[in-house]
Amino acid sequence: MGLLTIIKKQKIKDKEIRVLTLGLDNAGKTTIIKQILGEDTKKVSPTMGFQINTIQYKEYNLNMWDIGGQTTIRNFWSNYFDRSNIIIWVIDSLSLERLDESYQELREKIILQDQLVGTYLVVLINKVDMLDPQQHQSVKDQVIKVLNLDRELNQDRYIIQLVSGYTGEGLSPVLDWMIERDI
Ligand SMILES: Nc1nc2c(ncn2[C@@H]2O[C@H](COP(=O)(O)OP(=O)(O)OP(=O)(O)O)[C@@H](O)[C@H]2O)c(=O)[nH]1
Ligand SMILES: [Mg+2]
Q1: Mean pLDDT, the chain, as a whole number?
Q2: Alpha helix (H) ranges present in the chain?
Q3: What pLDDT is attached to residue 8?
Q4: Active-site residue numbers?
Q5: Which sites bind Mg(2+) (predicted)?
């Protein structure tokens, strides 16, 4: 193999981004990934293990790892941390009574993990299609307040976005943000 070919291959490889999608059960992780893939979002069932999908977006290959969020599966999340560039953390805006549980898991299992230092974080507040648009900002404010990410992370390391896995609302700015990171 010539040097040029090696350099070209390296460049293609450099455009791979590994994304781990996590969050509580029923938050909508699988639905969001299906929406990005252009698949039928109405046919989902709880993820019992994991699934990998590659999404091509503007010259980038996003390797999206979709992991189940049920309590018994959460202890296995760390098996997937290696070489992950971005963590997507999905929150269900229709179950804000679980926001504290979501925060605890995000903090203990993600933010405080040494293995994930340097990883970018995307927080998706999902299912906003069911919210009155007038509620959007207050729901976002509530999530910002509970997660209090400024305390743990630099502002350029994370983003919090309102989205809908059903309609796709809010997802393209997130894809753009992910590929614009320094990975
Ligand atoms: N209204 C609405 N419902 C959604 C949306 N996204 C997901 N749901 C519903 O929420 C439920 C859970 O969706 P999943 O995508 O399976 O959730 P998950 O986070 O992958 O769940 P686990 O695999 O168990 O961790 C399903 O009934 C979805 O149809 C959304 O954007 N809007
Ligand atoms: Mg799932």
Answers
A1: 94
A2: 3-14, 29-37, 71-74, 99-106, 136-147, 171-179
A3: 61
A4: 70
A5: 30, 47
